[in-house]
Design goal:
single chain; about 325 residues; alpha/beta; Rossmann fold; Helicase, Ruva Protein, domain 3; 2 domains; 14 helices; about 45% helix; globular
C-alpha cells in the first residue's frame, strides 16, 4: 500500500467521524419539514462549501421554512429580507445615522450582518438593491461611510424567487446570478407527503421549535475538513471537460447541442463544481470524490450558467436537457 493510499484511508476514517452531524441536521429538519430532502441536502452543500444558494420554486414549497429551520439547527444568526420594489441598498447593508445629541453620525448596521440571510423573492427588487447584496456575497464585507466591516462567518445567502410571476419583477442578470454556487429547482411534494403536511397543520404541530445540533464554530471546522477531501487529477479533468463542452460544441458526440447555446459556463462553474463535489463527498461520509459526486450536483451548479439560443427556446429545449446530453457524452474517468 502506498503512502498516498494510507493518507486517503486515514482521511476517510476522520471524515466518517467529523461528518456525523450531517445526519443529525437532516433528522432535526425532518421534524419540521416533510419531504424536500433534496432541498435540505443542497442547502447543506452550500453551507459546507461556502457557496450561496438560489432556490426557485412555486409558493408554499417550504423554501423559507427550510432556510429558517437550517439556521436554527446550526444555532446561527438568521435575518430575513423581504425584497420589494421600494427597497434601498441601505435597507440591506446599513447606513450612517445622524445623532443630534452628540452632533455626529453613527453606523446603523443592516440585516446583512448575520450568519444566514434569507433574500426572499430577490427578483422583486431593482438592480441596485440586488447588486448591494451580491457585492456582500462576493467580498464578505460591507462598506458603510468610510469604514469597511467584515461579515461574520459562516455567512450564507439563500435567495428565493418565484418562476411564474414576471409582472413587477427584476430578473437577475446573468453576470449576477453566476455568483450563486447552486440554483436549485424545488418541486411539489408527493401526495403522501402532502397528507402528512395537512395533518401536521390541523394538529398544530407546525409551531414546534428546532433544537440546535451543531454550533457555527463546528461548521467552520467541518469546512476545513471539506477542503481536505481528496480529488484526483482525473476528476478535475472530468470537471473541466464538462464545463468546456458548454463552450465548444464541436466535441465528438455533442453534435445535438451545437447552436443551442448562446454562451457557455464561466470559470466559476469549474470552481464551484469542484467545491460542491467535495462537499457532496463529505456529506456522504467519504474522504474522496468520485465521478458520481460530480454528476449528482452538476445540474444545480450549471443550469444558471449557460444561456440558451433562440433555436433551443423554439424547440423547448432546457438547460437540463443540454447538461444531460453533455454528461452522457463526456468520458467518465
Amino acid at each position: 500500500m502506498t503512502q498516498a493510499s494510507i493518507d486517503i484511508e486515514l482521511l476517510n476514517q476522520q471524515i466518517q467521524v467529523e461528518s456525523a452531524f450531517v445526519d443529525k441536521i437532516k433528522a432535526s429538519t425532518a421534524e419540521i419539514i416533510v419531504g424536500q430532502e433534496y432541498m435540505i441536502e443542497r442547502l447543506l452543500l452550500g453551507l459546507l462549501s461556502k457557496g450561496h444558494v438560489l432556490l426557485e420554486g412555486l409558493p408554499g414549497l417550504a423554501k423559507t421554512l427550510a432556510i429558517k429551520t437550517l439556521a436554527s439547527s446550526v444555532n446561527a444568526g438568521f435575518k430575513r429580507i423581504q425584497f420589494t420594489p421600494d427597497l434601498l441598498p441601505a435597507d440591506i447593508v446599513g447606513t450612517m445615522v445622524y445623532n443630534p445629541n452628540k452632533n455626529e453620525f453613527n453606523v446603523r448596521k443592516g440585516p446583512i450582518f448575520s450568519n444566514f440571510i434569507l433574500a426572499d423573492e430577490i427578483n422583486r427588487a431593482p438592480a441596485k438593491v440586488q447588486s448591494a447584496l451580491l457585492e456582500a456575497m462576493a467580498e464578505k464585507q460591507v462598506t458603510i461611510g468610510s469604514d469597511t466591516y467584515k461579515l461574520e462567518e459562516p455567512f450564507l445567502v439563500l435567495a428565493t424567487q418565484n418562476p411564474i410571476e414576471q409582472e413587477g419583477t427584476y430578473p437577475l442578470p446573468e453576470a449576477q446570478i453566476d455568483r450563486f454556487m447552486l440554483k436549485v429547482n424545488i418541486g411539489y411534494p408527493t401526495k403522501a407527503e402532502e397528507k402528512v403536511i395537512v395533518d401536521r397543520v390541523l394538529n398544530g404541530a407546525t409551531e414546534q421549535k428546532v433544537e440546535s445540533v451543531i454550533s457555527p464554530q463546528e461548521i467552520l471546522k467541518a469546512r476545513e475538513m471539506v477542503d481536505k477531501v481528496y480529488m484526483d487529477e482525473n476528476i478535475k479533468n472530468y470537471i473541466l471537460d464538462i464545463v468546456f463542452a458548454t463552450r465548444d460544441q464541436n466535441v465528438p458526440g455533442l453534435e445535438k447541442i451545437k447552436n443551442l447555446l448562446e454562451f457557455g459556463a464561466s470559470p466559476r462553474a469549474s470552481i464551484n463544481l469542484a467545491k460542491a463535489s467535495k462537499a457532496y463527498a463529505f456529506i456522504n461520509r467519504r474522504g474522496y470524490v468520485i465521478p458520481d459526486d460530480v454528476r449528482n450536483i452538476c445540474k444545480d451548479v450549471m443550469r444558471h450558467r449557460i444561456g440558451l439560443s433562440y433555436e433551443a427556446e423554439a424547440e423547448n429545449i432546457t438547460q437540463e436537457d443540454i447538461i444531460t446530453e453533455i454528461l452522457n457524452n463526456v468520458q467518465v474517468p
